[in-house]
Amino acid sequence: MMRPTQSEPVCPVQAQAAVEELSDSPVKDQKAFRQTKGHDACSIPCDITVKLLRDEKHSICGELQQSLLAFGRSTRKLIRDVIEEQQRGLDVLSGQVSELMSKVQMLSSEVQRSNAEMYSIKPVQSHGRDCSDIKESLMSVVPKIPSGIYIIHPEETDSSFEVFCEMDYMEGGWTVMQRRTDGLNDFKRSWADYLDGFGNLAGEHWLGLKKVFHIVNQKDARFQLHIALVSNNDVTSYASYDDFRLDNETQFFRIHLGRYAGSAGDAFRGYEQEQNQNTAPFSASDVDNDGCNPSCSFANRTVESCSILHNHTGWWFNQCGLANLNGSPEDGEQNQGKRTRILWDTWRQSGVPYAIKSVTMKIRRLLLFKVNPFKS
């Protein structure tokens, strides 16, 4: 028997394909087909096939890399588009917020203007020395005297000035010396501002220490001080003093108060002697008369200036005390633990001081009855 000659290497995949094809042919042709077909199938060497497969793999890898690069670019573009869209949304929202704030400011101004228009826009010409005197002068000729801005001329003064007169509160005749209602006026002021006065007479204002001094120190006159308080939950209360006067500027307008009456407690005098603010001089952040020299202890703290402790507002401080109706509430959230609000500490509910949203300090002339020495 002749031994077959050595032939070229046969690729396993191609040989298998040839075998499968031969299995379908007649038995008599299998030998001839094996000699011819098998030789043709292995005509491509295995190393070339491997190279082709390697090239195909490199091609697929290259296409995959290109696909990944394209995907990365599209992803970055998508993220950039999303960020730009969010930024546009934020810009629109910011614009809406700015527009809303402008409308709020316009509305606040309109409310303040409307409040002023509720009363006399043009001051009524002088009818007396103060609002009590005006009431007495007009009540016989005017059925109902309106509240509003009037011009008064206290005795022994060189000039007239405007005041707001409340004519419909507790029989009228009240001269308003201070009012806090809506927070539109800042009470963090210097001594000069508290001396001359500031604000809108028809709204929030401080009349001025010099003007109040001229009113309450008129000859043969005595004035009552009335303090009306309203809490954040609309509870009302008051404190009244039957004799109120101020010393002159050289004494820094030292306050003098008579007997107390009311429902809010006597915060001016407090509970202990060191809390008593009666007879205290007026202080501001730049004129310190509070008795803390060089410092004092208040609420377990060392205090050098009660005005600064009370948010740079002016008041009759005596080692700080329990009352400050000029206290500034705007910074309350930023100064936790500090007493920077409108303060009347003796007005409490369940042991906690009321949060005060509005207050009015007003003065009215008291009738003086002269005693006849010849009458028994």
UniProtKB/TrEMBL annotation:
Q: What is its main location?
A: secreted
Q: Which Gene3D superfamilies match?
A: Gamma Fibrinogen, chain A, domain 1, Gamma-fibrinogen Carboxyl Terminal Fragment, domain 2
GO cellular component term of the entry, any: extracellular region
Report the residue ranges that make up the Fibrinogen C-terminal domain in this protein: 122-367
What CDD domains does its record include? FReD
Q: Does the keyword Disulfide bond apply?
A: yes
> Protein name, please?
Angiopoietin like 5
Organism for this UniProt entry: Poecilia latipinna
